[in-house]
Amino acid sequence: MAIYANATREPGNNAGNYLGGPWRIVWHTTETNTAQEAIALFRQHNSWPHFTLDENQVFQHVDTDQAARALENAPGGVQTNRWHAVQIELVAHAAQAKPPALLVRAARLARWLERTHGIPQLWPNGFPLPPLNGNDPGGHNRDANTWRTQGGHYGHCHVPENHHWDPGLIDITALMAPDPVLGDFPLPPPGIGYA
């Protein structure tokens, strides 16, 4: 079992066993103002992520050894939810900057996940794109072959068969910061794994 010790358990439904692929983290935004609103929507749509984070708390809905349900997955297409995708929902909006306290909490969780599941600190499909006039900028890299073959960090905007643009505006430096307790998980040299 992979349960984050700093999380409050708020159980949701999983999508079953993973089917393969390298481990990765997928970053979402809830597009709500509170975790409670987001959790109510997950319950209503049965679209549970592994984690929901706000500035004050981490909620874990699904053990990371099981698949979550927050991604679209077309029949006969590329595996999304069940392709070793650990899914994190930030209580935030894609078009807005993320609060520093939320990014600190997200970075700590990400460093734990990287260590637990061997997830590299890479963004194989590039960084999430910021909004254009407060809206989806378009042009997201959703390369299916990269998704199938490379682990690392992805935005919802990078996942094949999906049409959302979250996490949108996000401070990558803060998100990838070392955990102050566990220490640094070294980044690769410039140009490796970054778009």
UniProtKB/TrEMBL annotation:
Q: What InterPro entries does the record tag this protein with?
A: Amidase/PGRP_sf (IPR036505), Amidase_domain (IPR002502)
Report whether Hydrolase shows up as a keyword of the record.
yes
Q: Enzyme group, top EC level? A: hydrolase
* A GO biological-process term: peptidoglycan catabolic process
Record GO terms (molecular function)? N-acetylmuramoyl-L-alanine amidase activity
The EC number(s) attached to this protein equal 3.5.1.28
N-acetylmuramoyl-L-alanine amidase domain sequence ranges: 24-168
- A Pfam family that the UniProt record links to this protein: Amidase_2
Keywords (alphabetical) are: Hydrolase
* Name of the protein this chain belongs to: N-acetylmuramoyl-L-alanine amidase
Tell me what organism the protein belongs to: Singulisphaera sp. Ch08
Q: What is the lineage of its organism?
A: Bacteria, Pseudomonadati, Planctomycetota, Planctomycetia, Isosphaerales
